[in-house]
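Structure, all two chains, one model.
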Amino acid sequence: MELLVASAVAVMSGVGIYLILRRQTFPVVLGMAMLSYAVNVFLFATGRLVVDMPPVLSEGAAGYTDPLPQALVLTAIVISFGMTAVVVLLSLGAYIVSDDDTIELGEGRE
Amino acid sequence: MNLALIVLLPFLGAMLPGVLIRSGRSAAALGAGLATTAALVGVLTYLPQVLAGNAVVTQLDWMPALGLSVSFRLDGLAALFALLILGIGLLVLLYARYYLTQTDPAGRFFSFLMLFQGAMLGIVLSDNILLLLIFWELTSLSSFLLIGYWSHKPEARAGALMALAVTAGGGLAMIAGMLILGGIAGSYEISAIVRAGEAIRASQDYPLALTLILLGAFTKSAQFPFHFWLPRAMAAPTPVSAYLHSATMVKAGVFLLARLWPVLSGTPEWFFAVTTVGLATMLLGAAVALIRTDLKAILAYSTVSHLGLIVMLLGFGTKAAALAAVFHVLNHASFKAALFLGAGIIEHESGTRDLDRLGGLRRLMPLTFVLASLAALSMAGVPLLSGFLSKEMMLEEVAHTAYLGSDWLLTVLVTLGALVSAAYSFRLIRLTFFGAKRADYPTVPHDPGPGLWLAPAVLVAFVLAVGTYPALVQTLVMAAAAAVTGGELPTVTLKIWHGITPALAMSGIALAGGALLMTQSRHLHWARPVLARLDMARLYEWLVAQAEAGARRLSEALHDGGMRQMLVALVLAALVAGGWTFFGTGLGPETRPLLGVPMVVAAGWLSLAVASLALMRFHSNRLLALVLIGIVGLMVSVGFIYLSAPDLALTQITVEVVTVVLMLLALNFLPKTSMDEPLGRRIRDAVLASVAGLGIGGLIYALMRRDFVLPPISGFHVENSYSGGGGNNIVNVILVDFRGYDTFGEIIVLGIAALVIFALADVLTHRSALRRLVAWSPDQPRAGDAHPLMLVVATRLVLPMALMVGVYIFLRGHNAPGGGFVAGLVVSIALVTQYMASGLAWAEARQRFSYHGMIGAGVLIAGLTGIGAWFAGKPFLTSAFGYVTLPPLEKFELATAMAFDLGVFLTVVGAVMLALSSLSRLAQHATSDERKRGGTS
């Protein structure tokens, strides 16, 4: 299981980094979304992986997983939506104003 | 009066002129003057006690963990300096009131001056070196502001920058030196460091600490080779030159040498370094002063020279020399400030301060003539004036000091210095006041009103009084010297006549030789280029240019302004740092067993991996890319469920929906495909991304296979979730209770992000952008029916149910997975479906409250809930809860945390909806026009 989670983090962050190095805004936005997934799962996994022990108090529970990383990641997920939305709008604005969606000046479409 | 209050008074006074300047500059000067007077009275009330040898001490802990405490100590040395700072400060305020012209912003001037005064007072009263360092840098800063006061003059800006770079740079070196001292002494209190003097001098770090501290002191006190900033600081208004750059700030370095004299002095290193630098500075300053023709430049170089003299005396390391140094500090401050103020009057009244254009002012400005001449004669060391007394003491010490193995070398050099000093003083008087009256003064000179002459007159009166009746300052000087040397002093009586001594002979030679040299000063032009070589400004400018060029090369190499190169540099730097740490340190053994993998999980992992890799390959088809990223998000949510994180799964999946909707809205305008990039570039990026991905994956794998090094703090949360927070869902209790402060901050950030989006979208519907927006036509075929009936009916039926689910998730959040965040997202989705199915116009027509208002209300409710805790005497955001029975309902819980969660809920709904509706409004602008032009394409 640990191997799967680690490889998933590796794939997601790798793809995320590849995409943020693209030339146009939309892939960069996608890349940042992928990086957010990777980082969130990474943070979550620092609490170590535990199956069937949700951090909800109940009688007869054998134990609880670490709730703190979960709380941190929960707000991170919501915040990363806010951030993605801002970036999307920035790129949209840049495109509407300049009719060009590359992220660097002087590197327009060939 | 508390010492801390005395230091605080000038800072408080710094705020007054800014306000009072509206009532005129007299009011502003008066406000500043009152604060200064109050501080002066505070010091004076302690004076009898301090003069009796008992220091006054105040201490307040500030950051005890760092050894930083606000401790002040008023002993003899501090009292002497404090009286100088406040006394001369008062005179300078009066003078400046009449000196500044109508167009100068006087309020700002007085504020800066008071800021400096407080900083300087802080330096001399601090008993903690860290505190002293803070004030030290504050004086550099206020000096920068004051030198650059006439910011329209290029030389003022350049001088200000140079002074800041040199003194603050030296200050940085001094910080390091002070930290070493504190490390050896085990305390940052100056009194403790003084007690540990023996250990510090024996320490092997002593030479390093000494070098660093001397750097700080020498730059501040304009010692060779750092003296070049002081003459250039003369671009400041003259009151500033008189106050900062002769009487007080430049003495800060001297003060520090005196303060640390018991700690650092007495070693051969100290003697050699301090004496040599002081001597060289004294000779060089005097020589340059002799050939300059600008009044203020002469005074600046003579200040450099006299500072060198004082530094040299401190370098001797004998108690009598320290006494002479302290006495000369007092005398130099009084006569030099008087001279500067006099020079200011001459410039003010005659329009120039160039000796070549002056002369013959004796009859035109008799009062100024008397005042400036007395001050200059004191500077020359003429008997019956105060300068003579300290110069005699200095020469007496010099006569007994061997230097470089020779008994007479120092005597000869210092006598020469004194001779040149007398010569430039005489020359200054002669070329300004004597000679024939001229016809070509820029303005006709005459004596100024009392506003200008009063301040130098007081100073000259002091010079005369001390010169003729030295017993006046006997106790003060003795107390200051005792504070420097740390204990008993040989009883020295300050007096004029010591009998025929070597010092008297040297003095006589200096005065006679000075008079002779003055008559020959016209023939000294050959010395100019020689001395210009010793001006280190060119070296400084070269260094600055080199540093600037280096910085530019470095930053241009790291990023050329393009984002991609910056990101590559960032990823590479992270890789190098991570790899270095990874290969540099070993890994502990793996202690956690691997968890098993059921088939379902493996299938989920596979779809995530395939979708991710496909995204990388096919991202240029943007709609497909959205589908693929949706799969990834979905699998992440499923993974959260499996790995005991139901709250995360709920949040992730709801965020997923709104994110995809958002991106679809954006794609409406953006191109639907990305262009191809060169293969080489793609391969390079893929390699970089793979290595980085492997690194991150490896790191988290290594982490997951090992147990916590220290027990996590989560145990506290688990134990106290129900008893302290009243909830069973620990994650939710953490969010709304244990770490409610974080959550509060986060909803504010979310709200701000939504407002930013709204503002951006608003800008796009204005002016030029709107034209483009209106001209935009869809690049894809449109559905024949924008609002299909089936969809409309279905979403309207679902809305109440979806809202109910939202409320349910909200209510149960405290005890079961759910809560404000998830509920907010669920409700947002329910509302967004209405927009999608029925259109923006339909939805907005039925919208009863604004999303801005919801964000505001949410933050407000959360904040008020937190403040509510204050009324119960608890800290911000402490929650309370109780259980209520309301028939026919079951017993249920009411917690303040729920109100907080309501705030979270409202903010999330408001923010998400504001973001999405802003985007839809853009589309609305485009499509409404599209219809006008005749329907869909």
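The radius of gyration of chain B is 38 Å.
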